[in-house]
Amino acid sequence: MTTKGIVEKIEGDVVFVYLMEDGTCVSCQARGEGDVKGCAACGLFANNKKHPIRALIKQGIRVSEGDMVELSMSPGKAVLSGILIFLFPLVFFFLGFILAGIVLHAMNDLYKAVAGFACMAVWYLLLFLFGKIRKRQDWPVVERKINSDGALQSKEASCLPS
Fold it and tell me: Do residues 122 and 84 share a domain?
């Protein structure tokens, strides 16, 4: 899975990139409208000046602020991220809802719902901690710098800005 973006800021081997819409974004059914343009399913928000994404600079690529770059992320990681962020919280909600009825003998649906939301919160806490442990392993990677004429550059001097 690749996309293009413009480098906003560089901190060592990490860049902050605003993503640009491409042909795949236009045809995506999960695409947002209005101020939230981009793919809601994969969490990549194109043309959103409020939330740049972090990406790692591939060794040998040299970029500077304002450069257009090509980012890549394995499709498996993108699908797994979607499952972890969207599907598992629902599973944990229903698990908490059902367990509250069985274990706590809660007859009131309000108590069951509170237990469901508590289980969702536990899942998001676990996901946050998992992200801290894995740190930058699942981030997108800057694969190439795109010249102003649209040509791709795959190798340059270093990953650090000059």
Answer: yes
The model's pTM is 0.57
35-75 pLDDT per residue, tens: 455 454 444 444 455 568 888 888 888 888 888 888 888 88
Residue 161, CA distances (Å) to 10, 12, 83, 106, 143 in order: 7, 8, 35, 59, 15
- How many structural domains compose the chain? 2
- pLDDT tens figures, 117-141: 999 999 999 999 988 887 777 788 8
State the residue range of the domain holding 40. Answer: 1-73+140-162
Do residues 9 and 42 both lie within one domain? yes
